[in-house]
Amino acid sequence: MGGYARAVNRSRLNELLARFERGEIDRDAVLEQLARLPFRDLPEARIDTHRSLRQGLAEVVLGQGKTVEQIARIVRALAAEGSNVLVTRVEPEVAGSVRRALPELEYHAQARMLTLRQEPLASRGQGTIAVITAGTADIPVAEEAAVTAELYGNKVERLYDVGVAGLHRLLGALDVLRTARVLIVIAGMEGALPSVVGGLVERPVVAVPTSVGYGASFEGIAALLGMLNSCSPNVTVVNIDNGFGAAFVATLINRA
Fold first, then answer.
1. Which of 31, 61, 89, 135 has the fewest other C-beta atoms within 10 Å?
2. Starting from the edge strand earliest in sequence, which strands make up the sheet with 235-237, in order?
3. Judgement on whether residues 149 and 232 belong to the same structural domain of the protein
4. How many domains does the chain have?
5. Of 88, 116, 144, which closes a domain?
6. Cβ contact 88:112 at 8 Å
7. Are residues 139 and 246 in the same domain?
């Protein structure tokens, strides 16, 4: 592990301080551990072992643009810290090669994500995160959000293919909408669904535009602009196809 301490979250830091108070380790040992918190060096990356302490959630790996060898090396380093590991945007052929090197990883094909669960997925949210899509074609982005939210200890309710072209499908699931603490709403085309959902609930709505649509959707820009101009004031927006970012924000809201 190159001499670096394990990734430190609040519970591990409290454990370190408790050991110091009990006289099991001296001040110099504590200072040495704290000095090693920030990161671990790899040839192509610096693993941020301090992030869960700062932000409450550990570092996540973006698989897009990385080689199989790079992903495997980074995952091994993160796994050695003892925490759960999440790799986003991993295409099937890359995932297959990574899993041959690290068979303990699980591949979520629709979400295009690799996960490693080493810590129990204890529920840390105050309520449910609802993940809602306008259409079936939006499900890959929705699954990226749902898998992320579940790995972060949230209870997730999925509600797919309830877009405004058939609004009765959404209205038939009002109990799901109104009992959720946070709603992630995913839509392509004109991106109207988050505004509709926002007008039905008194909860935060995290809107995700997708690149689904015909020519004038401009690969999600039309949906993005529509969501940014929402007349529902409880709607906030993340970037195009960014299911992970939506789940990260929704998790923080759900823990508050």
1. 31
2. 155-159, 128-133, 182-187, 205-209, 235-237
3. yes
4. 2
5. 116
6. yes
7. yes
> Digits of tens for pLDDT over the chain (256 positions)?
333 345 555 666 777 788 888 888 888 877 666 655 665 656 666 566 655 656 666 678 899 999 999 999 989 888 887 778 999 999 999 999 999 999 999 999 999 999 998 877 767 788 999 999 999 999 999 999 999 999 999 999 999 999 999 999 999 999 999 999 999 999 999 999 999 999 999 999 999 999 999 999 999 999 999 999 999 999 999 999 999 999 999 999 999 8
- C-alpha 3/C-alpha 21 separation (Å) is 24
Range of the domain at 95: 10-116
176 and 112, same structural domain?
A: no
Asked whether residue 123 is assigned to any structural domain, the reply reads: no
CATH code, domain with 180:
3.40.50.1970
Note the pTM of the prediction, 2 decimals: 0.82
